[in-house]
Amino acid sequence: xxxxxxxxxxxxxxxxxxxxxxxxxxxxxxxxxxxxxxxxxxxxxxxxxxxxxxxxxxxxxxxxxxxxxxxxxxxxxxxxxxxxxxxxxxxxxxxxxxxxxxxxxxxxxxxxxxxxxxxxxxxxxxxxxxxxxxxxxxxxxxxxxxxxxxxxxxxxxxxxxxxxxxxxxxxxxx
Length: 174
Description:
Largest sheet: 5 strands, mixed
Shape: elongated
Distance between the termini: 94 Å
Oligomer: single chain
Number of strands: 5
CATH class of the domain at 3-80: Alpha Beta
CATH architecture of the domain at 3-80: 2-Layer Sandwich
Strand content: 15-25%
Strand order of the largest sheet: 4-3-2-1-5
Helix content: 40-55%
Mean pLDDT: 80
Structural class: alpha+beta
Radius of gyration: 39 Å
C-alpha cells in the first residue's frame, strides 16, 4: 500500500485549516486517513509556534516506512529536522512563455513602425496657415448646412409637412 503524508483541508470557507495526515495515496484529499500527525494553520503569523504543529517521532516513523510527503509537507518535515529536502532551483521561473515573447516582439515592431511614421509626418512640410484655414472653411460650411437641414425653418417646415400629408392620404385612398 502506497502511503502519503499530506495536508487534509478543514475549516470554513476562506478560513483554511489543514491537518497533516498519513493516508493511502489513492484516498480522497479530505477523506479517510490512517493517522493524524499534526496540523497547519496558514492564517497565523509565520513566527507563531502554533502555525505548524507536528509530531516529529510519528512523522519520522512513517517516512522510514516509505510514506511519501507532498512538497508542502516535505518543507515542514525539513524545518522539523525529520527529512532533508533538496532545495529546488528553477532559473526559468520568471521567464515568459513563447507566445508572450512573440506578442512582445510584434508589439515592439508595431511601435517602431509608428515612431517611424510619426517622424516621417514631422519631417514633411507643414501646410501654410492660409491654406489650413481655407481647408477648414469648407468643413465648417458643411457642418452648418447639416445642422440647418436637421432643424427645419417655420416656412420650410410647412411645405414638406403638407406634401407628406397629401401623399399619405393618396396612399390611403389607393
